[in-house]
Amino acid sequence: MNSRYLLKNQRIRSGIWKWMNNNDTSVLCKRTLASYESSASNSKSSGMPEYVKIVEVGPRDGLQNIKTFVPTDVKIELINRLSNTGLPVVEVTSFVSPKWVPQMADNADVLKGIDKNPNVSYPVLTPNLKGFSSAMEAGAKEVAIFGAVSETFTKKNVNATIKDSLESFNSLCDEAKKLNIKIRGYISCVLGCPYEGKIEPTAVANVAKQLIDMGCYEISLGDTIGVGTPGSMAAMLKEVTKVVPASKLAVHCHDTYGQALANILTAIQMGVSVVDASVAGLGGCPYAKGASGNVATEDVVYMLNGLNIKTGVDLNSVIDSAKFITDFIGMRPESKVTRAIAKL
């Protein structure tokens, strides 16, 4: 059983301490237990939020890079399973041309086919007005748009300049507002670009402000190729929060260099309380060579549980969902938590 649940019981905690004091237990063990209890009880005093919203992006961002087509009924089953884990947001699909992302060719069928939990939001990605119109026909209630802070990446991703891509979103946002459709904004390559290298934090702040001004209620800042560190994350957020409050920001971290959880923790300590994650660590980016998967939802939930930060998400249910999709795809889960529990 996870130690978090054991340590919740005061009698058990007292018993553990009594046993340690009566036995030749190492100082390290005692320090570890004390540190755990201190971190769990002091999350509020450390300035961290009491609650973090997790946005599940596995069915869209996670699956889009899987080369073998995942059948529609399997996608629907995955989303239905994730909807029953306590996740408040599950991104369903992308209304993009199947020529560019074949995995999303069944977007309308997936959106129409899922069992919609009234406590869950189901946004879809819409790269342009055509995609937005298709999403509306399929019954979408929330959409996401995406830009980048690298000219080269933007050109390869949407075949436009940063300026032109942002201008194209103006008309889409106008239509969404007329229909009372919520809009979320993504920004790619905020901590590094596969083509241009380092990205200046001021460039990220500039695009974030423009997306907020268009009407996006939240901006997800994406470390698309996973090159960020806590240092670069802090520097970027320091600049962005000068023009967009932390309450309107989310972080979207890929784990290419194993820095995702550290970067997320840094963002949370700086006031961000929304985290994108992908079940089983599925993902990558078709336009970013070398980018590994998103941070695993299981790993994020486990870390936040240890910090005594509420998410409303049942860890075991997410792990079951991870096993379901990875067993079907025939791949090993990228989540360290899922791998560890599988060995117990």
Characterization of the model:
- The chain has 344 residues and is of the alpha/beta class.
- 46% of the residues lie in helices and 11% in strands.
- It is built from 15 helices and eight strands.
- Strands 2-1-8-7-6-5-4-3 form an eight-stranded parallel sheet.
- α10 links the parallel β5 and β6.
- It is globular, with a radius of gyration of 21 Å.
- The relative contact order is 0.13.
Helix and strand topology:
Blueprint: H1 3-7, H2 10-22, H3 27-41, E1 53-56, H4 58-62, H5 72-83, E2 89-90, H6 107-113, E3 124-125, H7 129-137, E4 142-148, H8 151-158, H9 162-178, E5 182-188, H10 201-214, E6 218-223, H11 230-240, E7 249-253, H12 260-269, E8 274-277, H13 297-306, H14 315-329, H15 336-342
Parallel strand pairs: 1-2, 1-8, 3-4, 4-5, 5-6, 6-7, 7-8
Helix pairs in contact: 5-6, 5-14, 9-10, 10-11, 11-12, 13-14
Sum up the overall morphology in one term.
globular
Number-wise, the strands total: 8
The biggest sheet amounts to:
8 strands, parallel
- Secondary structure: helix percent: 40-55%
- Unreliable stretches (pLDDT < 50, length at least 5) are 1-13
Strand content: 5-15%
User: Element order, helices and strands?
Assistant: HHHEHHEHEHEHHEHEHEHEHHH
Q: In order across it, which strands form the biggest sheet?
A: 2-1-8-7-6-5-4-3
Structural class of the secondary elements?
alpha/beta
Write down the overall mean pLDDT: 88
Distance between the termini: 9 Å
Radius of gyration: 21 Å
**SS element count, helices:** 15
